[in-house]
Amino acid sequence: MSGLRTEFPFTLPKGFVDDNGTLHRTGVMRLACARDEIEPLRDGRVKENDAYATVIVLSRVVTELGTVQRVTTKTIESLFVSDFGYLQDLYRIINFQDPSILDALEPGTPFPTASVEVG
Questions:
Q1: Do 89 and 75 contact (CB within 8 A), yes or no?
Q2: Quick one: which of 20, 52, 83, 104 could link to 79 by a disulfide (CB 3.0–4.6 Å)?
Q3: Strand partners, 64
Q4: What is the rounded CA–CA span in Å between residue 107 and residue 116?
Q5: What is the pLDDT of residues 25-48, one digit of tens each?
Q6: What domain range is 14 assigned to?
Q7: In sequence order, which residues have a C-beta less than 8 Å from that of residue 34 and are 6 or more positions away?
Q8: What element of type H or E holds 98?
Q9: Highest taxon of the source (predicted)?
């Protein structure tokens, strides 16, 4: 019997460009815990804009992004829209669906639309 898989490597479609111009495409996302979804609700930025909760949650669960020392909300805010959407889809897949569908996809390719719909 194998243990629960809690970390999932990914490759962003475009990549994050840091302040030095370095491109970072590979990273790791971990499964979310209840605290990852609850804590952002206490943040003033979320009280002003509910959508900001997604930025905070992703900054908590993306544990690696290339050689970036620490993934922060600023990091997530600076992603290209396609990469932000990719991480949102990955989050939904690993936390609410069957992560085994990731094995069939090439790194960095968009997720099939039907596979990421959440009821």
A1: no
A2: 83
A3: 28
A4: 16
A5: 999 999 999 999 999 999 999 999
A6: 7-99
A7: none
A8: none
A9: Bacteria
Q: How many domains does the chain have?
A: 1
How many Å apart are CA 87 and CA 63, to the nearest integer? Answer: 12
- Please write the tens of the pLDDT for every residue from 85-108: 999 999 999 998 877 777 777 776
Structure tokens at 32: 């979310």
Q: What letter does residue 9 receive in the DSSP assignment? A: E
In a domain, 108, yes or no: no
The enclosing H or E element of 21 equals none
Question: Domain for residue 106, yes or no?
Answer: no
pTM, rounded to two decimals: 0.85
Strand partners, 29: 8, 62
SS3 state of residue 94: helix
User: Which residues of 18-89 form beta strands (DSSP E)?
Assistant: 23-30, 62-65
Residue with structure tokens 């020392």?
A: 69
